[in-house]
Amino acid sequence: MREVKEDSMGIKLVGVSKGYKKNLVIKNINLEIGEGIYGFLGANGVGKTTLFKIISGYFTKYKGKVIYPDLEGKEIPMIGYLPQEFKGYPQFSVYEFLKYIANIKGKKSDEELELEIENKLEIFNLKEIKNKKLKSLSGGQKRRVGLAQAFLLNPKIVLLDEPTTGLDPNERIHFKNYISNLKNKQIILISTH
Q1: Burial 85-122 (b: 16+ CB within 10 A, else e)
Q2: How far are the Cα atoms of 59, 74, 145 from residue 35, in angstroms, in the given order?
Q3: How much is the pLDDT for 7?
Q4: CB 129 within 8 A of CB 137
Q5: How many CB atoms lie within 10 A of CB 150?
Q6: How far apart are CA 84 and CA 150, in angstroms?
Q7: CA 49 → CA 41, 84, 85, 91, 141, distances in Å?
Q8: 36: Cβ–Cβ under 8 A, 6 or more apart, which residues?
Q9: Which pTM does this prediction carry?
């Protein structure tokens, strides 16, 4: 792994362990991650999703520390997260859902949020279905909505759990090209088996 520079955004995991009842899933992880794209590979049940939930702040009960060097002593930074089982809010349209997430994530003007939403609708090929309800979308369309919400407002850290599940081959290529352009601007962690 690359060394985290003093002035760059990074993540350090120090002695991170997490178990469920008597089953230790993650044991003494020590890791330093700087800007770039990283893959977490392994079979189902080895702890990839658990590690993502620790990094994102979703899990607060674990042993060890997660440190964001340039934010030490402050809140966890804005993190984009695509869970393995993305559902969103089924009654929301694609546009309503992205607007809802943008309002939660950012303290920006309505105009800036609108531009950001339109940008992500374009990037993730969602413009034609922006008024459709999430409950009526195909698996691949829903996955693209999940990706769009994860990248909304360009968070410094993006966690993607099985991001290409359900995407057709062209969308997979499009996604890979998109994230390859972000490798020097964000920390992108991808989990897959």
Answers
A1: ebebeeebbbbbbbbebbeebbeeeeeebeebbeebbe
A2: 23, 20, 24
A3: 46
A4: yes
A5: 23
A6: 12
A7: 11, 8, 11, 26, 22
A8: 2, 183, 184, 187, 188
A9: 0.88
- Say what the pLDDT of residue 93 is: 97
Give the pLDDT score at 149. 96
- Please answer whether residues 103 and 179 qualify as being in contact, where contact means their C-beta atoms are separated by less than 8 angstroms: no
Tell me the two tokens of residue 137: 């979308």
Tokens found for residue 122: 């374009």
> Which residue has 């690359």 as its token pair?
2
Rounded to whole angstroms, how far apart are CA atoms 127 and 130?
A: 5
Which residue numbers in the chain have pLDDT < 50? 1-7
51 C-beta neighbours (distance < 10 Å), count = 25
Dist CA 66 CA 57 (whole Å): 9
Report the residue count for the chain.
193
85 and 77 Cβ atoms separated by less than 8 Å: no
Scanning 2-88, the segments in alpha helix (DSSP H) are: 48-56
Q: What is the pLDDT of residue 74?
A: 56
